[in-house]
Each structure stands twice: as structure tokens, then as C-alpha cells.
């Protein structure tokens, strides 16, 4: 009997021990699963940088989608903004005069046909008088010539008299035509000129629209014929003139895209190669002419840095500033949206950016080829300015 009790008690202890062991094992599994979930969640959150609306503005964050760039062949060149001959006009006059009025300054925007100067001279009066006298004489000679033609047809007058009338008629016609053209050269319409309309001043009109770049005269100054009083530039068709070394000239073709930036301006603009020069300059370069896309108020002579895309194969690329290097790997920050949150200092908009690893390739002309993850769309908005600021904020938040 005693043996049976001992055996039963021992069996009960074994059962209890097994139950406790299984319970212990089951609890440990749940804790391990929960710990794994928390770690994954923290890892995902650690790759997301958050900034407020004020920080977004302060950092000057810019977003851009991946674009196709020809990075396999890019020439880095220098140049300047130039004006085509037809868009740079020097204003002068055919007859000298004293400047009575000049209502424009350097930089003034003018329209085609606008009065930009008024000149005064007594010679203008004399020219108008000569024209009106010539016109009256021509009308008289014309009538006399017609009369002599009629008489000659009736054999009433001599042939010599008819010939004299014809000579006088043609001479007065030539004089009137010459004076008419001289009046037009000083912007006086001969068809509207009457004895009562004779004036001592003439208007100088802007032949094109644009802005004044030079003013070489002033009120009261006598302007001689062909003196350049002003210069006007039409800025709608400015060219980007580039200097390409002789060894690289054969790579440049008309129609290629040019990406350029102005001095002290990070905004990238585009132009199209329109002409490749055929003459080698003293510095062993060849002039490349390219037409800027769109209308920009460039200043002629402004220095530019440019990249000519000579490659044929385009590849997905981003500006160099979009890619950050951290612990030997390349990352970009992708916008994941915004939310409105309540904070101690009031409601604010919060921007979120996910730090995403990418594979990079060739780096040329300020752009770098990138290969995006498979789960990332091509139109995703990526930070192209302020990426390293976001990286710094993200890693500082982790340390805190």
C-alpha cells in the first residue's frame, strides 16, 4: 500500500512538471513573436524622417520625379548669353538734330513703335518745304505735259515743245520721289504733310520690342547722322553661345539638348543646338549656337555653365543632391505624404520622407543614374534638395 501511494505521487509530480514546462514554453514563444513585431515596426519607423511645415520651408526642400537623361555622353562646356543680329538694334538718325526729349533709361522695356526720342532741327523744316514746293511744281508739270500731248496729237504744237514738257515732268517727278523718301527716313509721312503741318521736330520710334541696354545721349545734345543714340535688345530669342574644344566638336550635332545654368543661379534651363561652327578659334575651340527654350529675361554677356547631351541612350536619373551616402550605401528620401498633427505649439502640417536604398550608376553633368526598388513607382516624389538635412535629422532622432 505504501508503495502504491509513492508511485502515484511521483506520477502526479511528473504530470505537473510537464504542464509547467509546456506553459513556460508557450509564454516564451508569445514574447518572442511580440518582440520581433516591435523590432520590425521600429526599424520601419527609423527609416522615416518627419519635419514640420516650418522646417520644410527653412530647409528649402524640393521634390522631383526620376527623369530620363542621356548620361552616357555629356560634354561639360562654358559659354555666355548672346543676341542674334536681328534682335540687337542700334538706334541712329539719318539727319542730325538736337535731342529735345528722350523718355527712356537703360533697362526700360519698350514696345515696337513706341516713341523713344524726339529730335529738333531747322533742316527738317527746310526739307518739308522743299518737298511741298517740288510736289506743286510736279503737279504743274504733269498738267502741262498732258496738255502738250493733246496738242501734239492734233498737230497743233511742235514736237520739241512736247519733249521739253516731258523732260520737265519727269525731272519734277524724280525730285518729288527723292524728297518723299528723305522724309520717310526721318519718320515724316509725306502723304499726310500739308503746309500747315510743317514742324521742326521728328520722332524716333522703337523698331522692335525689348529693353534698352544703352543710352548714349541726353537732352540738349546734338546728334550727328549715324551716331548710335540707343540700343534695344529683344530678349525673347536669346542664344546660348558655347565653346567646345576641337577634339569634342564632332560629338555635337544640331538638335541635341543643352542643359545650362546662369552665374549665381541654380535653376537649370534647356536649349537646343541650332548650329555648329566651322571655324577654330585661337584657343582651339569651336563656337556652338543653341536656342534657349521659352522666354527668359537673360542679360546678354551673362556667363553660363552647360552640359551638351551627346549620348543616344537615356537612363533613369536624379540630380546628384538627391542621393545620400550612409554607411557605404546609397539612399534617397521618398515623400510618403503629409498629415496634420496637434502639438504643444498648435496644429501643424507634418511631412514624412522614407529613406529608401537605391542602386546608382554613371554620374555626369550634375545627374546620377539610379535604379529604383521594384515596389517604387517611377512618378514617386523624391527629395532633390535637403536630402542630407533629412538624413542628419533622422539619425539624430534615433540617437535621442
Automatic annotation (TrEMBL):
Multidrug resistance protein MdtA-like barrel-sandwich hybrid domain: residues covered: 89-227
Similarity comment: Belongs to the membrane fusion protein (MFP) (TC 8.A.1) family.
Protein name in UniProt: Efflux RND transporter periplasmic adaptor subunit
Cellular component, GO annotation: cell envelope; membrane
Signal peptide as annotated in the record: 1-26
Origin species: Mucilaginibacter rubeus
Family annotation (InterPro entries): MdtA-like_BSH (IPR058625), MFP_Cation_Efflux (IPR051909), RND_pump_MFP (IPR006143)
Transport recorded as keyword: yes
A Pfam short name: BSH_RND
Keyword terms: Signal, Transport
